[in-house]
């Protein structure tokens, strides 16, 4: 998961200072030595580390004059604040043109995830901003990039503009902008050509595209896992082409976090989005504050709530509550729930957003077994509709059939039935309690 190593180190460090009622200069010094080490190990740019340590040290000495928090807690708050500032402070929104179409250029080196991110971003623009995006296939050099974008467009049911690979990227971009105007599409997302390395030709081509119609945004896509290389790439692109923001991909696999923590300071350009997986819905706006909390093990409840809100159908939730109350919850509802949770993303990632979850015994190393969930689904799918509603009718021979049908064992079938039974019992108790309370109130 993202920032794992850094989080672990920093959390260990702040744990020591947390309860202190008095923080001496020596305490701060010692702590900052460890923080410095943690940041360097996370591959954060050296200059950035130095500045960070200086800022925190200055603020941390002499904190004990403040109220409400213990001095130790205040120091942690300062670390969190400065981490947030390091990553840009506030979340940086997308700039849209007031004379559509808005033009967003996607630039980056090959393999960084530019084409994938172009698709993901179009998806976000449509879903969250109600825009009508046009995907433009101008990466004519990487074999199959054009087809890849077309496939993504099909998958997302979004239009893709392409003129094959024989027309120059500048011409493709020009015609695409015209096409968007004619079709009243309001955002043009240009997937420009990547290269293996930064070279003069690439930069010139990007500048030429820029010259067509000053783009509203130029997003550089970089791979978080490449650490300081990503920072150097960002610096070069910023100096030669000029960028307005960064999309950091593969943060899901980046345990160190050096790029995420350095890019803003080095380039002074904000990280706008982060890629958290290969799927089309795995692009998230980058929130420096939430990220800082996550790194320090304070959880990221806001992102968790947003994820839940985006995936939970309120009507369904109400329906479910009703079923809970009347204890008419069936295996069909169960499986629907399972799928709703799965849609929110990998479960172990979700767990890590809960404050303190990484400190809870047993939860720190939890790997939620998605395969296991698949087995549970298979068992339920092997039941008849009547069995799903009334599992108590399932006989021993049926259990055997269900196990065979789902490729599981009788023990697993039994376990699931038992768990379901217990869940229903619990619901009964809970609704009993709720109703009991209600009655009491009425009498009063
Ligand atoms: P391009 O050459 O920059 O256009 O790169 P692609 O879009 O083809 O992406 C390269 C690889 O990175 C593909 O296998 C993508 O699925 C993968 N990828 C892109 N973004 C992410 C991400 O956020 N997380 C993960 N895990 N993989 C990603």
Automatic annotation (TrEMBL):
It is an enzyme of class 3 (hydrolase). It comes from the Bacteria. Its EC number is 3.6.5.4. Residues 431-444 are annotated as: Disordered. GO terms for cellular component: signal recognition particle. Involved in targeting and insertion of nascent membrane proteins into the cytoplasmic membrane. Binds to the hydrophobic signal sequence of the ribosome-nascent chain (RNC) as it emerges from the ribosomes. The SRP-RNC complex is then targeted to the cytoplasmic membrane where it interacts with the SRP receptor FtsY. Interaction with FtsY leads to the transfer of the RNC complex to the Sec translocase for insertion into the membrane, the hydrolysis of GTP by both Ffh and FtsY, and the dissociation of the SRP-FtsY complex into the individual components. Part of the signal recognition particle protein translocation system, which is composed of SRP and FtsY. This is Signal recognition particle protein. The lineage of its organism: Bacteria, Bacillati, Bacillota, Bacilli, Bacillales.
């Amino acid at each position: 998961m993202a920032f794992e190593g850094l989080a672990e180190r920093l959390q260990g460090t702040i744990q020591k200072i947390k309860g202190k009622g008095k923080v001496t200069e020596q305490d701060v010094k010692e702590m900052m030595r460890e923080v410095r080490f943690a940041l360097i190990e996370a591959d954060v740019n050296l200059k950035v580390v130095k500045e960070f340590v200086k800022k925190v040290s200055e603020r941390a000495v002499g904190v004990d004059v403040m109220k409400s928090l213990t001095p130790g807690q205040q120091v942690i708050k300062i670390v969190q604040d400065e981490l947030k500032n390091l990553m840009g402070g506030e979340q940086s929104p997308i700039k849209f043109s007031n004379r559509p179409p808005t033009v967003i250029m996607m630039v980056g080196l090959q393999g960084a995830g530019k084409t994938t991110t172009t698709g993901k971003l179009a998806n976000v623009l449509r879903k969250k901003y109600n825009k009508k995006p046009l995907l433009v296939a101008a990466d004519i050099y990487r074999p199959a990039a054009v087809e890849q974008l077309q496939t993504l467009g099909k998958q997302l049911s979004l239009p893709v503009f392409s003129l094959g690979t024989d027309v120059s990227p500048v011409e493709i971009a020009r015609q695409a902008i015209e096409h968007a105007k004619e079709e009243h599409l309001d955002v043009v997302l240009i997937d420009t050509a990547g290269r293996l390395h930064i070279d003069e030709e690439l930069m010139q081509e990007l500048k030429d595209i820029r010259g067509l119609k000053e783009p509203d945004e130029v997003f550089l896509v970089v791979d978080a896992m490449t650490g300081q290389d990503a920072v150097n790439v960002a610096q070069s692109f910023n100096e030669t082409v000029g960028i307005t923001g960064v999309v950091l991909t593969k943060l899901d696999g980046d345990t160190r976090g050096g790029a995420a923590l350095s890019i803003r300071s080095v380039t002074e350009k904000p990280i706008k989005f982060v890629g958290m997986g290969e799927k089309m819905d795995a692009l998230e706006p980058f929130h420096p504050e939430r990220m800082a909390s996550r790194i320090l093990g304070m959880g990221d409840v806001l992102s968790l709530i947003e994820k839940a809100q985006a995936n939970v159908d309120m009507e369904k939730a109400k329906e479910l509550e009703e079923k809970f109350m009347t204890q008419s919850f069936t295996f069909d509802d169960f499986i629907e729930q399972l799928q709703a949770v799965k849609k929110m993303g990998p479960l172990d990632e979700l767990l890590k957003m809960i404050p303190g979850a990484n400190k809870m015994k047993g939860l720190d190393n939890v790997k939620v077994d998605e395969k296991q969930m698949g087995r549970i689904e298979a068992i339920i799918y092997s039941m008849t509709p009547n069995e799903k509603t009334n599992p108590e009718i399932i006989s021993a021979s049926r259990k055997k059939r269900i196990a065979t049908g789902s490729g599981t064992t009788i023990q697993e079938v039994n376990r699931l039935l038992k768990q379901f039974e217990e869940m229903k019992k619990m619901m009964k108790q809970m609704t009993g309690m709720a109703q009991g309370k209600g009655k009491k109130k009425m009498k009063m």
